[in-house]
Write a structure and sequence with these properties.
Three copies of one chain form a homotrimer. Chain A is an alpha+beta fold. Chain A is 25% helix and 38% strand. Chain A has one domain (2-137): YjbQ-like (Jelly Rolls). Chain A has helices at 22-32, 57-70, 88-97, and strands at 2-11, 17-20, 37-43, 48-53, 100-106, 109-110, 117-122, 128-137. Chains A, B, C: This is Secondary thiamine-phosphate synthase enzyme.
Chain lengths: 138, 138, 138
């Protein structure tokens, strides 16, 4: 069995953003030399997300508006977590979007459907944060 | 290490439905010959879901009504994604229900709790779509 | 390839609670002797959750209030599942929080970010329930 580990770092200038990760994960699979296995990609921070959906700007706006409806940022005072912090909503938003994805590796490539794209979801940016990529297989 | 891969195809006649997957996954484990490992089952489409919950018709009606409340299908005009499409709600519903499940394989069988059943969740049907089953182990 | 399996049991005296799991998972990794691999931790019950977030009491209160807003427990009559049962809301709450987490094992340890803590989320307690820990690797 082989294993591979890499961190991918971000420093998003806004509070919230979605960043396409698929090309970086494809590089990781290539570097790992693994032909058949599983790839885990997870946010290492609890106010960020890794998820799979469509690479379409209109949908990303829909996600932003929808998450604000389900878990609004303001008023900060509505959350008990916001004592010296203001990011309770980011913890809730990331819960909806998910911490991690697990992707099959087949024939040395990410085994994704035709429209599947992997994204980093930032919900409390303006600082350095990272995701973990771990691949095991042969 | 052994690995196994199979696609399971669907063509759901309605826009939304839940389809029991557990027996098909049990067959996959048997065919794989893997005794100890991990099974990944994920939708390969971004308007569908694979999730684990109860095989109970009343609960499935509750899920349908609840998802419509959290991410309503209509009016289509409420979503920016719906330019030439009408399935933005399906992307949101699938986000709530999840893209994938990872299940332990133990003693050559799916290692599920007594009431755990795996389902395919369709949120934009009336066309051919599929899930991926990948198993790695020994 | 090595594999390891363990069940962790709970008997939560209240309907809902969050219980820290990280130290128990660290023990599992140690016992397994696995240095590089993947750990799956999932609820074996469909009204419970395993998730990763902050170990902060205020945030846990926010989660409780937020889940009650998205999927209220009462009135029981609002759910079709509640025929002889009263836990439909628990199935929905667990869907938001997630069934499982997959965590990398690196150098014989859980490969978590600085604030990542693993929790068991109980949404229909007052009875014996369990989570599964499965680790594969080398």
């Amino acid at each position: 069995m082989k294993s591979f580990r890499e961190e991918i770092w971000f420093n998003i200038p806004s509070r919230r953003a979605f960043v396409l990760l698929t090309p970086k994960l494809e590089e990781c699979v290539k570097k790992s030399g693994i032909q058949e296995g599983l790839l885990l990609c997870n946010a290492m921070h609890i106010t960020a997300s890794v998820f799979i959906n469509d690479n379409e700007a209109g949908l990303h706006e829909d996600f932003e508006r929808w998450l604000e409806r389900l878990a609004p940022e303001k008023p900060y005072s509505q959350y008990k977590h916001n004592v010296g912090e203001d990011n309770a909503d980011a913890h809730l938003k990331r819960t909806i979007m998910g911490r991690e994805v697990v992707i099959a590796v087949t024939g040395g490539k990410l085994d994704l459907g035709p429209w599947e794209q992997v994204f980093y979801g930032e919900f409390d940016g303006k600082r350095r944060k990272r995701v973990l990529v771990k691949i095991i297989g042969e």
